[in-house]
C-alpha cells in the first residue's frame, strides 16, 4: 500500500574517503567516566569489579546535527555540552547476547559528537524519579562529525578526547579512562536491544560539562584524527 505521508529519509553521516552512513538509532551511555559521574553527584565505582551495569538512554536519529549549526533549544536555561566518542555499527550481529570478543568486529568506524543536555530539565526529572527523555532527546541535541573507518582510528585507549568553547579548554580525557570500553558497551547493549547496522553509540563524557549560550563556538577533537566545529545559534522563532 502507498504511504499516506512522505517517508522521511534517514540522516546520513559523511564517511572520510567517500560514501555515507545511514543512521538507524542512537544509543547513549551515561556515567562512563568516573570524574563526570562524581561531578553529577553520582558514586563512581572504586574498581572494575564494582562497576555494576552501565546507564543507557536514547536520542532520536533526527536529533543529529550534521552542519554544526545548533539553535538554542526551548524550555531550558541550562544547555550543557558533553563531548563523546561515537561508535558506528556497520554489521547486524543477529539476535542474542553479543560476546565481547566479537563486538569490535561490528564497528564500522568512529566519530565525535556532543550529547547536548537540557541540564535543568534533567535535574527536575531526577528529583521526581522521572525519565530523562525531554532533557536528552530534543531537536538538534546530537551534533556529530564525519566518520573515520575503524582501521584508520587504530588504538583508541591512548587517544585524547577534548572540547574547547570559545577557545578555552572545557573537557579533556584519554579514552582509556572510560569505565566500559566499546566492546563491553556493545555487549551490555545487546542484552537490552538487538543491535543493527546503522546504530550509533555515544560512549559517555568526561568531567568539565558546563553551560553554552547563543554565540558560543565549540571545537571538539579526538587528537588530530577527528574534529567537530559547532556554533550555538539564537533560538528558533
**Class per helix and strand makeup:** alpha+beta
Number of strands: 18
- CA gyration radius, whole angstroms: 17 Å
The CATH superfamily name is Fumarylacetoacetase-like, C-terminal domain
Can you tell me the number of structural domains?
1
Portion in beta strands: 25-35%
> End-to-end span in angstroms?
37 Å
Q: What's the tally of helices?
A: 6
Report the CATH topology name: Fumarylacetoacetate hydrolase, domain 2
The outline comes out as globular
Write the CATH architecture name: Alpha-Beta Complex
What can be said about the biggest beta sheet?
Answer: 6 strands, mixed
Low-confidence stretches: none
CATH class: Alpha Beta
Order of SSEs? EEEHEEEEEHEEHHEEHEEHEEEE
Helix content: 10-25%
Main sheet: strand order: 4-3-15-8-9-12
The overall pLDDT average reads 95
Task: Describe, in plain words, how this protein is organized in 3D.
The structure is a single chain. The protein has helices spanning 34-39, 100-103, 119-127, 133-136, 150-153, 182-190; strands at 12-14, 20-22, 25-30, 55-59, 64-65, 69-71, 79-80, 83-89, 107-114, 117-118, 142-143, 148-149, 160-165, 168-174, 199-202, 211-212, 217-222, 226-233. It has a single domain (12-233), classed as Fumarylacetoacetate hydrolase, domain 2 (Alpha-Beta Complex). By secondary structure, it is α+β, with helices and mostly antiparallel strands. It has a six-stranded mixed sheet with strand order 4-3-15-8-9-12. A five-stranded mixed sheet has the order 6-18-17-13-14, with no helix packed on it. It has six helices and 18 strands.
Amino acid at each position: 500500500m502507498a504511504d499516506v505521508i512522505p517517508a522521511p529519509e534517514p540522516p546520513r553521516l559523511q564517511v572520510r574517503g567517500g560514501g555515507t552512513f545511514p543512521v538507524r538509532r542512537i544509543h547513549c551511555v551515561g556515567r562512563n567516566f568516573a570524574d563526570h559521574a562524581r561531578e553529577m553527584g553520582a558514586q563512581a565505582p572504586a574498581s572494575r569489579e564494582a562497576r555494576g551495569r552501565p546507564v543507557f538512554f536514547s536520542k532520536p536519529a533526527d536529533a543529529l546535527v550534521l552542519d554544526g549549526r545548533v539553535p538554542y533549544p526551548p524550555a531550558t536555561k541550562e544547555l550543557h555540552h558533553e563531548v563523546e566518542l561515537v561508535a558506528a555499527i556497520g554489521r547486524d550481529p543477529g539476535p542474542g547476547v553479543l560476546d565481547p570478543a566479537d563486538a569490535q568486529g561490528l564497528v564500522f568506524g568512529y566519530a565525535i559528537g556532543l550529547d547536548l543536555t537540557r541540564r535543568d530539565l534533567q535535574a527536575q526529572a531526577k528529583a521526581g524519579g522521572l525519565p530523562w527523555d525531554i532533557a536528552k532527546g530534543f531537536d538538534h541535541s546530537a551534533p556529530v562529525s564525519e566518520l573515520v573507518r575503524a582501521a584508520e582510528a587504530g588504538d583508541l585507549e591512548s587517544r585524547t578526547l577534548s572540547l574547547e568553547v570559545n577557545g578555552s579548554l572545557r573537557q579533556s580525557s584519554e579514552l582509556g579512562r572510560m569505565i566500559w570500553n566499546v566492546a563491553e558497551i556493545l555487549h551490555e547493549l545487546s542484552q537490552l536491544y538487538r543491535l543493527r547496522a546503522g546504530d550509533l553509540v555515544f560512549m559517555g563524557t568526561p568531567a568539565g560539562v558546563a553551560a553554552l549560550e547563543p554565540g558560543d563556538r565549540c571545537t571538539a577533537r579526538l587528537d588530530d584524527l577527528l574534529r567537530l566545529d559547532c556554533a550555538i545559534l539564537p533560538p528558533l522563532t
